[in-house]
Amino acid sequence: MTKSVADRTWHERARELSFATQAFINGRFVDARSGARFDSINPATGRVLCQVSAGDAADIDAAVVAARSVFNEGSWANMAPKNRKRILQRFAESIFKHREELALLETLDMGKPISDSLKVDVPAAANCIQWYAESIDKIYGEVAPTGPSALATITREPMGVVGAIVPWNFPLVMAAWKIGPVLAAGNSLVLKPSEKSPLTAIRVAQLAVESGIPEGVFNVVPGLGQTAGQALSSHMDVDAIAFTGSTATGKRVMQAAAQSNMKRVSLECGGKSPNIVMDDYPDLDRAAAAAAYGIFFNQGEMCSAGSRLIVHERIKDVLLEKIAAIGAKMQPGDPLDPTTRLGAIVDEAQMQRVLEYIGAGKSEGARIYAGGERKLIHSGGYFIEPTVFDAVRPAMRIANEEIFGPVLATITFRDAADAVAIANNVVYGLAAAVWTRDINNAHRTARALRAGTVYVNCYDADDITVPFGGFKQSGIGRDKSLHAFDKYTELKTTWIDLS
User: Fewest 10 Å CB contacts: which of 12, 99, 199, 347?
Assistant: First the structure.
């Protein structure tokens, strides 16, 4: 008897899955003009999933030409807001309808647990598109208080052609954070996904056209960062570039944008987020659970990961014991097993990077409290167990540099001023947290922390209605919320003389 879809295991579904592997330009799948391809690797096995078209400058140019043509023609940019809204709503519904396919693509391509892809990533992406669709006909212009002799209106207009470069850790969600406001504002988009996880972006572009988005409005060019990414950042006919990824790459994107046509730049870059636990916080079980989730979720491959635990010396031992116990229950496993809570590191290079940092922590004198080893070597995949360091000093590399893996660095403090000083003494400023029962202390500490998001008595709380972005070298501009429109629209003043 044939099994129903619901009865088949994720491994059985994976064997039946087909992959869209070409660029998607002007509503069509096309090979890279050079014919070049690159391997997409399954991080859980180390084996090749498929080969993907490796776009370069010629393919980026073709996508930009298509995006510019449809923007100038106006079928999307000048569409009545209520109609653009309906189409984006259908697009969001299509993402959710195809949630199992997209979740499977995400897990096979990037290594995260299938339960997270299915219950977190795909619904979050669909919700993002839906939310921006709903916002389209709720953005009003302004009338300036100029006096009776003039009428000055302030309106938002689409930028034109927007380029977006998105990372591999949350491929679909990070893409949606760009796609939603870019398209809602009436722009055309050229999206360059990470070469480590391009498959969901390619498939979603196809769903966009099937939902009614005009051909050429949403284009996807997979390729390497040094070719396709560089070409998009430096293209003379791209009006804005939005990037999420490492700080080092963000700086190169910024340089390319400045040296080309001075296109608008928005960057969401690295983080080394502090998680401060004061000694007056009464529920250490809750704080430990949040700390563990904040660094081990998504294999620690999060820009906002709470990678520095800054804890009062009086409660450090108790808290670390609780965090280590939770980590012991989050051992890495098969990403296609719905019970797995910790998946595979995205590729071998990233795994080696994380292991090198673990080695550096030990050589600089930090103490491994828990974990620290590669796991499931027999699988051929890239797995690292949850790792907790104790006795970390603020000057150590593991306390200053972004590791992007399941590695927690524990630093002790004696008073709140000391905690804030340690927290702020890095080049990043993406997120931070403070745990305390004293409301005054909470407000003072939150105000003193130099971070784009400060969590109080929680970690990694999230909603599409609040902006996300960082201070210092964590970036420029904000994703999510209505503030995202600031990146993808121009403000126009129209002055009418009434005298």
Answer: 12
pLDDT in tens, 266-318: 999 999 999 999 999 999 999 999 999 999 999 999 999 999 999 999 999 99
User: Do residues 440 and 434 touch, judged by C-beta distance below 8 A?
Assistant: no
> Residue with structure tokens 């396919």?
101
The active-site residue, picked from 106, 195, 215, 268, is 268
Indicate the pLDDT class of residue 8, thresholds 50, 70 and 90. Answer: confident
CA distance 395 to 399: 7
Q: How many other β-carbons are positioned within 10 Å of the β-carbon of residue 200?
A: 30
- What is the average pLDDT value for the chain, to the nearest integer? 97
419: alpha, beta or left? (left if phi > 0; alpha if psi -120 to 50): alpha
Torsion of CA 406, 399, 417, 270, to 10 degrees: -70
Select from 250, 227, 243, 262 the least CA-distant residue to 61.
227
Active site residue 303: yes
Residues with Cβ within 8 Å of 404's Cβ and at least 6 positions away in sequence, in order, are: 169, 300, 301, 302, 305, 350, 353, 354
SS3 276: strand
210 is catalytic: no
Q: pLDDT tens-digit profile of 106-136?
A: 999 999 999 999 999 999 999 999 999 999 9
Question: What is the rounded CA–CA span in Å between residue 357 and residue 403?
Answer: 7
| 167-189 as b/e: b if 16+ CB within 10 A | bbbbbbbbbbbbbbbbbbbbbbb
| CA 75/CA 61 separation, integer angstroms | 21
Question: What is the DSSP track for 330-380?
Answer: S-B--TTSTT-SB---SSHHHHHHHHHHHHHHHHTT-EEEE---EE-GGGT
Q: What is the pLDDT of residues 425-461, one digit of tens each?
A: 999 999 999 999 999 999 999 999 999 999 999 999 9
Residue 403, both tokens: 């590791």
Predicted model pTM = 0.96
| Secondary structure class of 80 (helix, strand, coil) | coil
Catalytic residue, from 269, 303, 385, 402: name it: 303
